[in-house]
Write a structure and sequence with these properties.
The protein is mainly beta. The chain is built from two helices and 44 strands.
């Protein structure tokens, strides 16, 4: 928000000046007018009160993405589902992966079975045996072994390590050649876990109390005398246990509930004994929510009950101070999950979180960070578990609401609510009463139907907070075709329906406002599908001191 003084601009008189509480009207020459203007579009800030955030921050910003100065973009909703859980079952875990050049979703169900779902919806059972991957306790987890297949770990049984490439290789069976490097090896018994990662041609598995690792080049061999081994959880700063293990930038990061270690220099020497450096990088910050851990360039993003963090090299930095108010009132059930997605050509970290919204409703939203600002998103079908898919460096987010699997942020929608609630502006001082005169918007519609906002002008006075209706509405701009005789030409399609051509141009429009208060703010909601806001401005004049 920037304050502008249009007194130097000539203004046409529109009748007598408005009185407090009456109609607004444009100030005529000689009257004092000022602007509260939203144009730089900072993100959401819930760390402090609405009266104390920066002028162009928001106490609530949902499904409106701050891209750049003069570009606040309406967000898209989810695409149609590619898979739906069978009757009586819920999707409890989702993971996107590829085998060869073919992309799949691993869909794990509440009865312990799992399916491989192709992008065209074709379903191949991974296991139809109930209880294989889930028994009501820890969620299963999977990781790719190159593009040859995937590894699956579970604690549903003591023998919980599987391989899959279109065929399931359970414990006790012969392992596939792509996993064992050409050395015939039986899939091991006695290996189970809550998280699996591949790093330097080895499988690494955490099971809370231990870190297990396979031999180099053979992800089915965990015997200590053959290059495998186990590292127990014994450090004093490891309060509960290991929660995840994830590679980034040539290192392997071992997450505990309240700490992070980094593993490097992995070597197998004489006697096939594997050694590595295992050093602590932070003894007080960890991650009890392993599904929030995702790669972010050369580092890792993750979250815990205190916020969202960026792990880069050996440094851990909290980056979500602007979400502190949300975390303070959040309910961490279901557990938060994370993904990365390119949205309007910006790489974004996305995290599900169940929060209290600005109306006092407890619901799941997606907290989104575009590298500079935080804002919120939701979908018409709201996911509770999300994951990412990467194809040719294009990263997209997928999710499930427990019933269906769908891609996020794909379709403009009139069913998706877009909401902004700005600062309660004080201007020069919260002791000066302001009289709102007119509300303006500059924007561009991409739907050919125009766009609109409806909401309230919020006024904080000595006696409390009051609201008055506020609205903004643009219209589609039709192209009028004329023939040589200046007659209107009507176009029709093959169904004899009239075709209307519209131009996607910026539109400037305004609406008179009423009221009087020392603090003024806006709460605006749009159900329009596809548009960009360049500026929202409130014209006002100073009326007098509070109590004067």
């Amino acid at each position: 928000m920037s304050m502008m003084d249009p007194r130097a601009q000539p203004q046409q008189r529109r009748g007598a000046p408005a009185q407090p509480g009456g109609g607004g009207g444009i100030p005529f020459a000689g009257m004092e007018g000022s602007l509260f203007e939203l144009r730089r579009f900072e993100g959401i800030n819930t760390r402090t009160a609405r009266t104390s955030i920066k002028d162009e921050q928001y106490s609530w910003l949902e499904n409106l993405m701050p891209i750049a100065e003069g570009n606040l973009r309406s967000m898209y909703s989810n695409a149609a589902a590619i898979n739906t859980a069978p009757g009586g079952k819920q999707i409890i875990y989702l993971k996107m992966y590829n085998i060869g050049a073919v992309q799949y979703a691993g869909v794990f169900l509440s009865d312990g079975t799992a399916n491989q779902v192709a992008m065209n919806g074709t379903v191949t059972p991974i296991s139809a045996v109930p209880g294989t991957f889930y028994n009501g306790g820890d969620l299963p987890n999977l990781a790719q072994w190159g593009s040859s297949g995937i590894l699956i770990v579970t604690t549903a049984s003591a023998n919980g390590y599987y391989a899959w490439d279109g065929t399931l290789y359970p414990p006790g069976s012969a392992s596939p050649a792509w996993l064992n490097g050409g050395t015939p090896t039986t899939m091991p018994n006695g290996v189970a876990g809550t998280y699996v990662e591949t790093f330097q041609s080895r499988a690494w598995i955490t099971n809370k109390t231990n870190l297990l690792f396979s031999a180099g080049g053979n992800g089915a061999q965990f015997a200590a005398g053959s290059g495998g081994g186990v590292t127990p959880a014994t450090d004093s700063f490891l309060r509960v246990g290991f929660t995840a293990v994830k590679q980034a930038n040539g290192y392997l990061y071992l997450f505990g509930d309240s700490s992070i270690n980094v593993i490097s220099n992995v070597q197998t020497g004489a006697g096939s004994v594997t050694t590595f450096n295992n050093q602590n990088t932070d003894p007080q910050v960890g991650c009890p929510w392993p599904a929030t851990i995702v790669q972010w360039g050369r580092g890792l993003m993750f979250a815990n009950p205190e916020g969202v963090y960026l792990l880069m090299g050996g440094a851990v930095e909290k980056i979500s101070e602007d979400l502190d108010g949300l975390f303070l009132g959040a309910v961490f059930v279901p557990l938060p999950t994370g993904a990365v997605a390119w949205i309007f050509r910006m790489k974004c970290y996305c995290m599900t979180l169940r929060v209290m919204d600005y109306l006092g409703n407890l619901r799941t939203v997606i907290c989104v960070f575009n590298g500079q600002r935080w804002f919120l998103a939701s979908q018409v079908t709201q996911p509770v578990y999300i994951d990412l898919q990467e194809i040719n460096s294009i990263i997209t987010a997928w999710g499930t609401d427990g019933n269906a699997v769908f891609q996020l942020f794909q379709v403009p929608s009139t069913a998706l609510k877009k909401t902004l609630q700005g600062k309660l502006w004080q201007g020069d001082s919260y002791l000066i009463i302001k009289q709102p005169l007119r509300l303006y918007s500059l924007g561009q519609d991409f739907s050919n139907n125009g766009y609109s906002f409806a909401g309230t002008l919020d006024m904080q006075t000595e006696t409390g907070q009051f609201t008055t209706p506020a609205s903004l509405a643009s219209k589609a701009l039709p192209i009028i075709w004329l023939n040589n005789s200046s007659q209107v030409v009507t176009w029709q399609n093959n169904s004899l329906q009239t075709v209307v051509f519209v131009v996607q141009a910026f539109t400037l429009f305004g609406q008179d406002q009423q009221g009087v208060a020392p603090l003024l703010g806006l709460t605006l909601v749009s159900m329009s599908s596809d548009f960009q806001i360049s500026a929202i401005s409130l014209l006002y004049r100073k009326f007098g001191p509070v109590g004067g």
